[in-house]
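Hey, I'm writing a tutorial for new members on how sequence and structure tokens pair up, and I'd like a real worked example in the thread rather than a made-up one. If someone can provide the structure for the chain below, I'll link this post from the tutorial.
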Amino acid sequence: MTAGATAAGAPARVDVRGGAASRRTILRCLPALLWASVAAAQARPAPPAGAESLRDSARARLSQRDGTIAVAGLDSAVEVRRDRWGVPHIYARTAHDLFFAQGLVAAQDRLWQMDMWRRIGEGRLAEVLGPSMVERDRFARLLRYRGDLDAEFASYAPDARPIVRAFVDGVNAWIAAARDRPPIEYTLLGFRPEPFAEDVPINRMAALAMTGNALDEIAMARLVRRLGPARAAALRPLEPWRALDPARGLDLGGIDFDVLGAAAEAYGPVRYAREGSNNWVVSGAKTASGKPLLASDPHRALGVPSLRYLTHLVGPGWNVIGAGEPAQPGVAAGHNERVGFGFTIVGMDQQDVYVETVRACDTGRCYLNHGEWKPVRAVTDTIPVRGEAPRVVRLEFTEHGPIVGEDTTRHRAFAIRFVGSEPGTAGYLASLSVDRATDWASFQRAGARWKLPTENLIYADVDGHIGWVAAGLMPVRSWTGVLPVPGDGRFEWRGFLRFEELPQALDPAAGFIATANNNILPAGYTRPLAYDWAPPFRAERLAAVLRAGSRLTVSDFQRLQHDEFSIPAARTVPLLLAAAARRDLLGRPELQRLSRWNLVMSRDAVAPAIWESWQRAMIHRLSRIRLGPAADSLAPGEGELGVVEAIRLFTAPDAALGANPAATRDSIALLALDDATRELTAARGADREAWTWGSLHQAPFRHPLHGAFDLPAAPRGGDANTVNATAGPGWLQTSGASFREVLDFADWDNSVATSVPGQSGQPESDDYGRLLPMWREGEYFPLVFSRERVVRETIHLLMLTPAPAGGR
């Protein structure tokens, strides 16, 4: 490849050693980007006085977006038009060139992010970050797909393998061009990019955080051990209801998060993953145009750069636009010429923790299964370690999966069975088939290929049909799957549900379909896909608005995606005010604010902050009363009621609150208000005018390595249970809709999108933070599709041409 280049500026260094606590901090801040602890959060430098020289160096490495680049490996010229919002529209004459160009263009914008994604999947972080990452790498190598590659690629699409190869070749073409002036992060960390292999897009770590059932099983085991099955089930009720079923003879002692080792950190905060995504679609009967409208806002962790990357692919058999993950080919959410699609997590239970009985044997180590001692399968691997000699590690497997932890006192090992060991379970890669669906039948065939992560795939087409499929590879069990089980042979998967057995619908009489990570099991559906769902409030709000809606427009959907009406507040604030009235306390300034509140979690209002702080305190006090002395045996937060159960108990108090439940409820409500007042005063001072929700509730955009490349934090409205879902620990929003789409089937050029913070991951690019101000204000950009509109909106035109024979 040939391209003009400016010499890189002086290298800058940053301390990336950190300690265990800081590594956990970064892991939990950036789970969906799938970056490991690339730097210790506490040690990350603030912008120094010489930060401008660092920014100058970053600018010198920016990718070429105009002119011509000669590329070895292309069949013919490829046209790349970047529009005013940074979206590349790629026009190619062959499918090979189309995906080669997609890989190259994605690498131009996101190479360092893609490289860290690759290293996490391959277990090669210690090679650049040092010995603190060895156990993390070991876990990634345990999780690696080791099956038949032909079956693997064929599962996604008949032509998936040549598509992936072309994509990877394009990535490598840009790596070769940028190797001597890579993005600034490589200099900060002191290494250079290396070529990708074709198995990079099929790594299994990418979807791990969206299938966190193993962590949930450990959490439930802790509760059952301390509280017993009945009280644990009351605290964490299964939905649909079913009694907890601890395995007969299994000692739950010693089963804690540390038995998962590095696996526990690798999952990230899976609880937040259930508090976010929305999608819905309405038929033409409810729209102004007479054609369907579709909205999707899949939520993941917010970060710099964004997890999502938008692209438009035009070539033989392809004309699809939307967002995917930068290290994978295709588009995961978007539309082609006939069909549009979006997704939210279903949350099927795709993992189990097996407690294996182990002992030494002639082959090294054996485990007990079906009354026989079977040899543990072992693989010896070598992990390169920066600054040290390589570490030789032993990877062990039972028939249930990789062994991730040990309990030597009880002669037990812990294995995780995960559908990721099955062919076709790389996250989102089945979108290569979804992208080319032309009608409901072909969409269903494509949906049958979608195995991981489990998704509510919503659908509409230009003929006016709307549909939904709960897609994913769902194990068949004879037990609930919510607790660890012994690996003795009594608890084995009995295959997987057939696609035809999964919930789905076409053209429902209501004229709309909406999902929000809620319980989507249809009435009478008896196959247990999961027992743990997001609270129903977002889904209830969507259904209420869409059911009443008529002559709906794209603008209506934009407003609904940013809707911040709080159903939990609507159910609890009147009871708090009534409790205050009974004790003649309505004159308190906090209650005066709440009495005038419209129940919208606006960032500029004070009442949302009062209510949010009050709700947390109310749930904490309710939980303490509900658990009694047992609360002292639990870790902080472990014994907290879920918001659904807490609101049920608050609105309909029962004997769990004592002999006079209503009076106890009133006392809890007012004591929680005192708690909230103290918390807000400590956080923002005594002046109530300073207690605006957005002053507390903010989305930070911090570069993982250096403060010189931070972007401004955004004040946020909403919370975990509004349609504009803005969840996170404490006051922060750390996950949410980094990407949104609203698709107009009457006019594709009328479709719109949002993304944050920008299309480029390269600091100092004008596309690095271009979209953040729009996202902060709830504004959208056009998702232009027609050639005419694309040309009109083009601000960068790059031609990729075949390199002359013998050229680079």
